[in-house]
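Note to self: user wants both folds in one dump. Writing first protein now.
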Amino acid sequence: MAKEKKLVEAITSMDVDFAQWYTDIVKKAELMDYSSIRGCMIFKPAGYALWENIRNELDRRFKETGVENVYMPMFIPESLLEVEKDHVEGFAPEVAWVTHGGMNELQERICVRPTSETLFCDFYKNDIHSYRDLPKLYNQWCSVVRWEKETRPFLRSREFLWQEGHTAHATAEEAEERTIQMLNLYADFVEDFLAIPVIRGQKTEKEKFAGAEATYTIEALMHDGKALQSGTSHNFGDGFAKAFGIQYTDKDNKLQYVHQTSWGMTTRLIGALIMVHGDNSGLVLPPAVAPTQVVIIPIQQRKEGVLEKAENVRDRLKNVCRVKLDDSDKSPGWKFSEQEMRGFPLRIELGPRDIENNQCVVVRRDTSEKMTLSLDELDEKIPKLLEQIQKDMYARAKIHLNTHIHDAHNFEEFCNVLETQTGFIRGMWCGDQACEDKIKEETSATSRCMPFNDQEQISDVCVCCGKPAKKLVYWGRAY
């Protein structure tokens, strides 16, 4: 019994130390391990399986919009990186440089890609000639390197996995349409597949991507009330095209510059899953993304017929869900704790007495609710249960988001809300970066976005300086 308790006791309560709770779950659920390179992480099978499901579903949705996958080199010559001034300045502090090839010093430094805008631009300038070549709707799945000073598993590491879309269009209107389309795709994916509600909006000039005309974002709220930027989509206009000379001949035989977009999501979504849905017993995974949706745990499995019946149930359920049979020699209590730690949405308990009665016990991970179901109806009931769990998890997360959005009408009220509450703060803004800087310097809160679907004029004046306001902004402390 002591061993069965130990698995959960190893998790620090989220109310005691949220950061340690997060690290404990990442380790105890065996999602990752630390590598010998500081700030880099090793994906263990359970963690990588989550990324595979995220990647596969996103990839499917991308392709439905006409996007094709490509792959660019991981190395960028320094001269190429410096072509677009704002872009290189934005990434310079985080760039990792290669200076030697074998024993020989390179004539030109090469950076390990922090992002691939310059590579795509260098490619497009030779690949795009006519309006007939447009649009280019490309995406790549890869890793990038950013030499972060402070790291945390999944949320911020020196090398991380992501996708980066890069498109080229004939007109500014087409580029803007694609930019918004991909942001909405991201938002729908996170809400439908990960059961995480988000705020959709535009970043301020200060917070936009280096070199972009406009950056759009989806912002999620973690259980501890901090924001997490969960996906961004950037409209580059023709700035990169002019810097790299990416032109095409239009229908009137005139040279025009292309208009570009870029958009990306990363493995930090796994961190979001943990911090939105997890509890003090471990992970709680939405069924849509869970690598294992149902785990079958035989009780007294050495008794005649128990394991065989469990195998039969597993084989039947394979047709309707992702199911696993835990036939290891661990005790049932340990298996229950492990199922909870790993976040499998449903647990089926099946013992000799259950078999006699042609039934089993089914336990929901998200609510701990137990129910008795006939073995004959599992094929029908399990998919419906999984669908209900997905909806319920989103609904609970949505309630948490809605109840952690607060209004502030002046700076004193803003500071008071930060001291006494957690979550987003809605506050009007005059548009002056000096106010944005002051809020960050004095409170550590940053502008998260200017929301698309919420521009209620909660005040006529800026929450910081009291001058006439222009935009409603969601503010908050963030990861």
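First done. Writing the second protein, which came from a different request thread.
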Amino acid sequence: MIVREQESLANHTTFRIGGPAAFYLIPEKEEEVKEAIQFAKDRGLPYYLLGKGSNVLFSDSGFDGVVLEIGKGLEQIHIQGTKVTAQAGIPLSVMAMKLAGEELSGFEFAGGIPGTLGGAITMNAGAYGGEIKDCIESAVVLTHQGERVTLSAQELQLGYRTSVIQKKSYLVIEGTFSFKKGEREEILAAMKKMNQSRREKQPLEYPSAGSTFKRPEGYFAGKLIDDAGLRGYRVGDAQVSEKHCGFVVNRGQATSVDVCRLMRDVRDRVKDQFGVELEPEVRIVDSDGKLVTL
């Protein structure tokens, strides 16, 4: 297992923001994941799970605990007919391409999401009308006590950007899925179309954490922000994207303080003008490992 001290989190997040983690661990097999959790417990430190570093904003002062990167070495995928079991560290883009190669349809929506399977299951990731809950059968998780538990799709309690995994801070080890047979060329064409749309509509030229706010029921966050006159609104180097108002981007040297202030300003303006409360989709983590509310 790789162990680093005072590792910059800005180098491991898609926002490119965050101070150093006291310890940064990269377990490369399931047994090492348990060892990494014990490493944190032995030192009385909080721990945080990281995949590709999307959908998270760390404090400028860093994280006074242990960050576990679930990726390298935990990327195996096993395909048997239409049933698929994949480990938590596999990038969604890689999994989508492997499924397309086996002519399995139902995961095209995830091909352009910049994350790993573990994070996607945890937050029931979705795009273009598809969600993890549409294809998952079960997931294997580790509890805080290190117990290995298999949860059925129903037990996962997958909702809009939420799950029992998130609520109980479980750690995903692997997921089992069921897909439908399809035509390889049709699957690849659908993925290409979605990825092209993503490139055209999303501000991929700047670092961001992905969609900043959850979609309010009956509304679209980006449109509300745009209608509030906040397109391009800026605090320091944090900016509401001029390309897509649902994204906050880092124009260069944005800090966590900049982003949080901007998000509060956006939330307050939208609430004042339209009476709609925007809820962050980005997970804001303080230096003690606690999730921050705006």
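Dump finished. Worth passing along: The two ends are 35 Å apart (CA to CA).
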